[in-house]
Amino acid sequence: MKFTISQEAFADGLTNAVSAVNPRSTLPILSNVLLQASGDTLTLTATDLDFTVRTKVQAKTGKQGSTTLPAKRLSTLVKDLPKTEIDVEVDAKSVATLRSGAGVYKIFGLPEAEFPGLPAFDGAVEFKLKSSDLKDALRKTHYAISLDETRYVLNGIFFSFKGDKLTLVATDGRRLALAEVNDLEIPKSQEREFIVRTKAIQELMRALKDDGDVVVRLAQNMVQFDCGPTTLISKLVEGNYPNYVQVIPTKVNERVAVEREALLNAVRRVSLLNTEKTASVRLSFGKGNLDISCNTPEVGEAREALVIPYKGKDISIAFNPEFLMAPLRYLSEDEVHVELIDDISPGVIKINAPFVYVLMPMRVGGA
Amino acid sequence: MPRPASPSSSPRITSARPRRSSRPTAASAPASAKTKVNNSPDSGESESLWAQISSALRGELGEGVFDRWFSTARLADHDGKTLTFAVPNSIYQVWIESNYAAQVQAALLSVLGAKRKLKFVVEGSTAPAAAPAVAAVEENEAEEIRPDAHGLNPRYLFDSFVVGTNSEFAHAASLAVAKSPSRTYNPLFIHGGVGLGKTHLLHAIGHHIARSKRGAKVAYVRSETFTNEFIQAIQTNSLVKFRKRYRQADVLLIDDIQFLAGKERSQEEFFHTFNSLFEGRKQIVLSSDQPPSEIAQLEQRLVSRFEWGLTAELQPPDMETRLAILRKKADTLQVTLPPHVLEYLAHRVKSNVRRLEGALLRVASFASLSGRPLTDESIEHLLRDILQEEARRAVNIDQVQRKVAEHYDVRLADMTSKRRPANIAFPRQVAMFISRRLTKCSLQDIGEAFGGKDHGTVIHACKTVQNRMDKEESLRQVVKFLEASLQR
After folding, report:
1. In three state form, how does the secondary structure of A297-323 look?
2. Is the peptide bond before B88 cis (omega within 30 degrees of 0)?
3. Could you give the CA distance from residue A139 to residue A311 in angstroms, rounded to a whole number?
């Protein structure tokens, strides 16, 4: 096998593929990346058996063929090579020779035959949507995924293709983020709900382009995201996602629009006077005014005021600052709507788009 | 879906020591009757309890939250320790556990006057009803020695520990730790031979802290259990849960740490547990049958950490302490024995407290069953196996010679030969010295046993070794080690 490729394209492709390699893999072949040269594309594939990344980059094939090379080492090397063309040649014993400028590198690989095959998605249920829509919805929800491995159904994002929309939900038990992609055509027989693992979500967000479409294919316990040059295949999280609808308050008492960046900045500054143990900021809503404050014994206290068009009754409610800032960081709208019930009920953040964030208040002082 | 432990639950802990449980005692039965478990509450009782809890909870949470999350819940099961609530589906379970566990506890506190373990299960997935019945039987059988919530034996208290000169220091250190955990001595390392009260002190610390500090998480575990649970966690891929259990303890009591020797992965895991607790300023108490530096195959970094805090040794009790222990034990067993019998026992059984108590129990039950007066002969007969064991510990010259020859790597024949190169002569002198100290043999006999030397040679040997011991720490160590291994 023989091909010529630009350093940038090769490094990009490898960075994508390496994300699937488990550094602690027990099978040597799984530390390798599969290279397949044919025509003017080089296909790179890496897998840990549960999660697979396959990505295509441009290359000039001299002689068609395939091999596997140690992913981590190859990727580190290629990233460090000068930005010129790289000639790659692989002999029958899977030894690869890289030539870049005056440098010659020989790397020992393993034959392609040992590399595990990819799961087939023949006859799978298929959904097609705009790449940017999915990316945006993922950005709005991914931060609420639970890291607590004891509740493993929450270690991922819940995908629900139902009606004419895709609903994404993530929760860790103290907050919940929901975003929707509307105007999809989903036949009744193709409605599906499944949970995608955290790792796949992270890589998916990187792989999704800002233009073009993404195709989601669902087979048995596997999902495939086809995002143009890069395809991700991941095992699903088994189990049933909790019925999240229960969490979203149906009746709220107060509603006010707040400037997103101003709120984010104020909360961030105030929370600087928190310690790790006592992380909480208090939001006091009064007529036309929002006070953001925190008081940490032995550290100090902070207070900032925002002018807001609030007309309801006075409400003073405490939140975990990280949890409050997370959606504000990942939203792009200028304005968010904060909805409240009372001092001890969950707060809700909404925007002028299908998005809901429910956040449980903290009980400071009390229980 | 696996149910995560409720956030307030303390680390799960192991059962009582089996070797204690085999000995029934008369005194402690009534104390635990109060905690008798009600495993099959009739539904009416459950409902009225739920009604009380829910009205308290309503006040705690407010109308809106209560209606949303608790109006469809019901109390499925309750016993002295755990309340199980059935909820309609998993979101209730997740959300209530994450957000409202503290409020439910507060409501329980006001209704029942005490906190309980909480369990939330999804309606319809409750365990089959047969299970509690089995549990009830087991609990009744185990009632006598049932450990309390922390897995600590309720009889092991500071009050029931007899302090003598042998244990004064260890007792004082333990008491100091129990009174102000993680302030004074951290870690506390208690070591001593079999049956001298290491476990007793460990449990006593646990009890004291659990009683004086509400909500303190006391984790008592034997190192073997620690290892087993660690292995299981690896197998079932639940290391996170395992770590959580131990690293969130306020007080970690680890018994028989010497069993970690040679188990490298467990040592590594324990090392990290130790560090995270220590950094979090949590109290750690360890026990072992040897001082840290003498536990073979224990990693150096663990040894150095164990030596970091306070090391306290428990020694075999002296005559007076043994007598005091016997009197105390006789009191708790509610038996009266003539003083001469107690003295006889204290005199004859020296090696460990457990054996001493066993001997007392045997003599006491013989007296009450046979109704015959106790004479020295009858006791001798009754305790012949124990006394034989004790006697076996008497050392003879032959054993000393073997041990010393083995230690210095010389031939046994050299012990009795007339050759006098320094590498043979000195071990021989050490062997004479130890024989003089540990056996009842006369100088003459010792000389005879070492190849027909006269008594002057033996005196000279003893003086030489004593002189060198005064100067050389290494020799002191060797002699101490040899004597200890001979007496074991």
Report:
1. CCCEEEEEEEECCCCCCCEEEEECHHH
2. no
3. 32
B90 neighbourhood in chain A, CB within 8 Å: 153, 240, 242-243
Here the tokens at position B270 are 């324990």
pLDDT tens digits along B48-82 = 888 888 888 888 887 878 888 888 888 888 877 88
Query: Which residues of A are less than 8 Å from B4 in CB distance?
Result: 148, 150-151
Give the predicted TM-score (pTM) of the model. 0.54
ipTM entry: 0.80
Cβ proximity of B249 and B217 under 8 Å? yes
Tokens describing residue B153: 């034996």
Contact check, Cβ <8 Å, B98/A172: yes
What's the rounded Cα separation, in Å, for the pair B235 and B233?
A: 5
Within an 8 Å CB–CB cutoff, is residue A26 touching chain B? no
Choose among B210, B208, B205, B214: nearest CA to B310: B205
A150·B4 Cβ contact <8 A:
yes
Q: Please indicate whether, in this complex, the C-beta atoms of A150 and B89 are within 8 angstroms of each other.
A: no
- A329-349 pLDDT, tens digit per residue, is 999 999 999 999 988 889 999
What digits encode the pLDDT tens for the residues A246-284?
889 888 899 999 999 999 999 999 999 988 777 889 999
Instruction: DSSP for A211-232, please give it.
Output: SSEEEEEEETTEEEEEETTEEE
- Within the 188-227 window of chain A, which residues sit less than 8 Å (CB to CB) from chain B? none
Rg (CA), chain B: 29
Is A226 within 8 Å of A261 (Cβ atoms)? no
